[in-house]
Amino acid sequence: MLGECLENVRKNVPLVHNITNYVTVNDVANVLLASGGSPIMSDEPEDVEDITSICGGLNINIGTLNQQTIKGMFTAGRKAAELGHPILLDPVGAGASKLRTETAVKLMDEIKFTVIRGNISEIKTLALGSGTTKGVDADVADAVSDETLDSAVRFVKEFAKKADTIVAITGAIDLVSDGDKCYVIRNGRPEMGRITGTGCQLSGLTTAFVVANPDNKLEAVAAAVCTMGLAGEIGWSRMQEGDGNSTYRNRIIDAIFNMDGETLNKGAKYEIR
């Protein structure tokens, strides 16, 4: 059950090295703490080998690239791979610029990722090696819906198998596949898109879940996605008159902090295809 994956995070307190974007770094740290994990943030190339060596997993997010962080990503990625640590890639905005696209594709070429998590436009960009997205949000034409679900499931399975990784496509309907099975997840609230960084937070959370569940990585990724979506539902249900997106962000983090395995098992909405 997915709830056991959450309980394992709380029991094992995975230490996660995050090279993430400066827009959301504080929220990523707080979500990791809320889940029972422990965050370290470092992107300095001379620092990252030592830092990633003492951690259990590495979360790479390309949301605010510069030459220093790019060098740090490759250095940390190679070290984490050498140590056999789980590594996650969040290709934020891949397709929106040449630098983002080329960096994401090169990272995939040189580093074996355990998980790749992004929206449908970003994942399609990686599958094609190029693409166009409208900023960091999924292009409407790419949205996963009930009408496009069959083709989307087929696409994510094919890409996961080709890339030999677990792929998580998140949006109104979330898809998590290892190439053979695909979790179709329907947790979450549309208002989560009004908060900067829920995807970045999910990438940190997912890394912690995979580190804490080494023998059950696919279910761990699905559990992390369900946890974030369910937290969005719980947080929204507690909104009061006058609350806005800043309060909602805090309520989501609080919902993760207070969530247990039983709550996740009861609230997770998914099917396996």
Describe the protein's topology.
Blueprint: H1 2-12, E1 15-19, H2 25-35, E2 38-41, H3 45-54, E3 57-61, H4 67-83, E4 87-90, H5 98-110, E5 115-118, H6 120-128, H7 149-163, E6 166-169, E7 174-177, E8 182-185, H8 198-212, H9 217-237, H10 245-258, H11 261-267, E9 270-272
Parallel strand pairs: 1-2, 1-3, 3-4, 4-5, 5-6
Antiparallel strand pairs: 6-7, 7-8, 8-9
Concise structural overview:
52% of the residues lie in helices and 14% in strands.
Walkthrough of the structure:
Helix 1 (2-12) crosses helix 9, helix 2 (25-35) packs parallel to helix 8 (198-212) and helix 9 (217-237) packs across helix 10 (245-258). 52% of the residues lie in helices and 14% in strands. The protein has helices at residues 2-12, 25-35, 45-54, 67-83, 98-110, 120-128, 149-163, 198-212, 217-237, 245-258, 261-267, and strands at residues 15-19, 38-41, 57-61, 87-90, 115-118, 166-169, 174-177, 182-185, 270-272. Strand 6 and strand 7 form a beta hairpin. Residues 131-138 have low confidence and may be disordered. The protein is globular. With 273 residues, it is an alpha/beta fold. The chain has a nine-stranded mixed sheet, with helices on both faces. 54% of the residues are buried. It starts with a helix and ends with a strand. It has eleven helices and nine strands.
